[in-house]
Write a structure and sequence with these properties.
Blueprint lengths: L18 H17 L22 H5 L2 E6 L3 E4 L2 E3 L1 H11 L7 E6 L5 H13 L4 E5 L1 H5 L2
Parallel strand pairs: 1-4, 4-5
Antiparallel strand pairs: 1-2, 2-3
Helix pairs in contact: 3-4
């Protein structure tokens, strides 16, 4: 409780009592200090180690897969001939053990886009997440 001492000649006091306000602020400060979490601790994790008995095929991991759609309904996967019926199963075997499922499509200049779209559809059906298009300008580095 606040009280004023001095020459108050019977008039009313116009001073604000700040003691309850300070009490409320201290209580709020304590509440926020308790609620604020301590330094967050991460979870302990073990990084998986490669199996020493299993050989890692580095060439398989680093090889980019390019499906070429050529004229006369010919297809190639990285310069290896394939057919429309064998495209899906062949891509499934290639990407079976890969973590990143990314492949590219390259169409000849004389090929209709419908054939390129058919190849993209087969690739998506084989489980490839991302399919990129290779154009003549992209191949030339422009």
């Amino acid at each position: 409780m606040g009280m004023s001492v001095g020459d108050n000649k019977g008039g009313s006091m116009a001073e604000m009592n700040v003691v309850p306000l300070i009490d409320i602020l201290l209580v709020l400060l304590i509440i926020f200090m308790v609620i604020t979490p301590l330094t967050p601790h991460g979870l302990d994790a073990l990084v998986p180690q490669p199996n020493p008995n299993q050989k890692q095929d580095v060439e398989l991991e680093n090889k980019t897969v390019v499906v070429q759609v050529l004229v006369n309904n010919k297809l190639k996967i990285n310069n290896e001939d394939t057919t429309w019926d064998g495209l899906g199963p062949r891509l499934e075997t290639i990407f079976k053990e890969r973590a990143e499922k990314i492949a590219f499509v390259k169409g000849d200049n004389d090929v209709l886009f419908a054939e390129v779209a058919r190849a993209i559809d087969i690739m998506r059906g084989a489980g490839i997440d991302r399919v990129g298009l290779i154009t003549a300008k992209l191949e030339a580095g422009q």
